[in-house]
Structure formats: structure tokens, C-alpha cells
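Per your request, structure below.
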């Protein structure tokens, strides 16, 4: 590749790149479920901007290009919800997703006091499920998303955020 991928906190200038990347990355999920109205594809740029401004958002960069992103926020009960983990299709399988996940977990635990990490992924998304299991998440239930897709809810204690992929 020639350059290394760096992980950093997203800035407001990254919102549009995150929005475009998310739209690209979640096309495969939409195809898998036969549903192009999944939440990541209908989210607005303004919503992404709001999350970048207030939530815990990290990006992966290859040079100046945003090639990955993840978002997390603390709930009122002290757990952290992690969402929208995405890596550019041409760079999947190189550990970028795991690095983004670890960065978000560390910030949510150390800076915001999270006691538990929770995330959701589609029940057919084997690549996602494999990554999440590899870094210590366990399935705790199922819910139906607002888009109708069946989601698996996964959790792990915040004390285990340093687990490697």
C-alpha cells in the first residue's frame, strides 16, 4: 500500500467524508438483506454532523482519505452504544475495523466512563459477527430494526476493551 492507516478522532470537517463512506460501505449490507432503506443508508448528512459534534467518532485515514469510521455514545445508564463501523470495501480484512473499534472502546471507557459496550448487526452479517466475536463481544439478544432487519445485539464489559482482534 505504501502508506499506513492512522486512526484519529473525527472532526467536523470529516462529516461529509464519513457520510459518503458510510453510504458506500453499507451497500453490501443493503444487498444482503434486499433492503436499501437500512438505517445507515437513509441517515442524513446533518445527522452525521450532529453525531461528529457530540459523540465519540473516530476515522481511519490512508493519507488524506477517510477509509473507515465508527461512532459511539454513552447512554444514561452508563453503557456505550457503538454503531456505524465501516471500512472502505477495498481495505477490508486488514484489521482496520478492529483498530477503529478498539479506539472507540478505549475513549468511551477511559474518557466517558462506559461500563458496558453494546452494538448491533444484522443476523446475516457473518463478517461483522466474526469480528465482534473475535474482539470479545457475545450475543445477548435480537431486535428488529426500524428498517425491518433482524439485528443481533452483542455486548461486552467495558473492562475488556483492550482485547485484541
Amino acid at each position: 500500500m505504501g502508506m499506513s492507516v492512522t486512526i484519529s478522532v473525527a472532526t467536523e470537517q470529516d462529516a461529509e467524508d464519513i457520510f459518503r463512506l458510510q453510504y458506500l460501505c453499507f451497500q453490501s449490507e443493503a444487498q444482503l438483506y434486499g433492503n436499501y432503506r437500512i438505517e445507515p443508508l437513509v441517515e442524513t448528512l446533518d445527522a452525521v454532523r450532529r453525531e461528529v459534534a457530540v459523540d465519540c467518532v473516530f476515522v481511519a485515514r490512508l493519507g488524506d482519505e477517510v477509509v473507515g469510521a465508527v461512532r459511539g455514545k454513552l447512554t444514561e445508564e452508563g453503557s456505550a452504544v457503538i454503531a456505524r463501523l465501516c471500512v472502505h470495501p477495498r481495505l477490508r480484512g486488514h484489521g482496520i475495523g478492529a483498530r477503529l473499534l478498539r479506539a472507540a472502546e478505549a475513549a468511551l471507557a477511559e474518557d466517558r466512563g462506559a461500563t458496558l459496550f453494546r452494538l448491533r448487526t444484522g443476523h446475516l452479517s457473518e463478517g461483522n459477527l466474526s469480528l465482534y466475536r473475535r474482539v470479545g463481544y457475545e450475543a445477548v439478544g435480537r431486535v428488529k430494526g426500524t428498517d425491518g432487519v433482524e439485528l443481533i445485539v452483542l455486548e461486552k464489559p467495558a473492562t475488556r476493551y483492550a482485547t485484541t482482534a
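The chain has a mean pLDDT of 93.

Regards,
D.
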